[in-house]
Amino acid sequence: MPNRTALITGVTGQDGSYLAELLVQKGYRVYGLIRRLSSPNVTHLSIIRDKIEIIDGDLMDQTSLNEAVRCTSPDEVYNLAAQSFVGISFGQPVLTGEVTGLGALRLLEAVKSHAPQARVYQASSSEMFGHVDREPQDESTPFHPRSPYGVAKVYAYWACVNYREAYSMFVSNGILFNHESPRRGLEFVTRKISDGVARIALGKAQTLSLGNVDAKRDWGYAPEYVELIWRTLQHSTPGDFVGATGESHSVREFTGEAFRVAGIEDWSKYVVIDSKFNRPSEVYNLRGDSSKAARELGWTAKTKFKELAQIMVEADLKRLSQQGS
Q1: 292 in a structural domain
Q2: What CATH number has the domain bearing residue 70?
């Protein structure tokens, strides 16, 4: 395979850093877009920091995106940047729309003008399905988003479809269900749980506060999902693909499993249910069907629920133990 060039937005995040590692292993020249005028946390890139090139850019600034695409001449563009926390989107709906929705459109415009032959991947989300009327959800399931984040992702999704149809660009959406890892931000519930459980097990905390523990999600392992992201752009034709494990588990189940990993069987006395974490409108049950990805891309999720909880809790136990008291 000849050397290819990739441009990744959101490169400092969970998916961006795992994808950058994968592409470096495959011999790509990798550019990572990082918002200017900030002090980016590049901790997740420590393994490959000297193997990728960081450039300035902002999804809210068309000129910076134009320049980033023009100067890198990418073969592949992966848009993984977003205001990606559902809870925050209720408090900052306009910012979420600007970054997560219009940001994707700005990037499409930059690619159309400066690298029209590039293949584009858009990180879509299972949150677009929202209030579902069927289970599991696949590429044909109607969207009914229940948060400003979900609404913004739906806008970005249809923008990608439109550019694919209107301009014959190679643009694909990856409708990925929740995927987690030790690199997940602490504001996300699985990492909040794994970190909180580890702190309780090590005597660094007494309680863990959670909101709606009955919400169910389809949780997979992020390093496997970036393989799907890459495969999506290697396909012969652009399209939209669901990535999921096909299983759904409640926040309550994840909490119980996390405590078991840490050696605590009765976790009820450590968990505090706090309504301040509840959302104005909740998504109760998401479970994906990724049979199209299996059929056309040869991808299936391998790491399932219990193994995922074990990976995350053990990583936080190790991290916190090394930090000392």
Answers
A1: no
A2: 3.40.50.720
CB 251 within 8 A of CB 212: yes
Residue-number span of the structural domain to which 197 is assigned: 185-217+247-286+304-323
In the numeric block, which tokens belong to residue 236? 């012969």
- Residues annotated catalytic, as ranges: 125, 127, 149
Tens digit of pLDDT for each residue in 74-126? 999 999 999 877 888 899 999 999 999 999 999 999 999 999 999 999 999 99
Neighbour tally for 236: CB within 10 Å: 6
DSSP 157-219: HHHHHHHHHHH--EEEEEEEPPEE-TTS-TTSHHHHHHHHHHHHHTTS-S-EEES-TT-EE--
Identify whether residues 227 and 310 lie together within a single domain. no
Residue-wise pLDDT for 256-279, tens only, equals: 999 999 999 999 999 999 887 777
Are residues 237 and 318 located together in one domain of the fold?
no
* 97 DSSP assignment: I
The lowest-confidence range among 40-54, 186-200, 266-280 is: 266-280
Residues 227 and 256 in one domain: no
Do 155 and 263 lie in one domain? The reply is no
Kind of pairing between the strands at 216-217 and 249-250 = antiparallel
- What does the pLDDT read at residue 87? 81
Q: What is the CATH number of the domain that holds 261?
A: 3.90.25.10
**Cis link prior to 2 (omega < 30° from 0)?**
no
Q: Which amino acid is at 143?
A: F
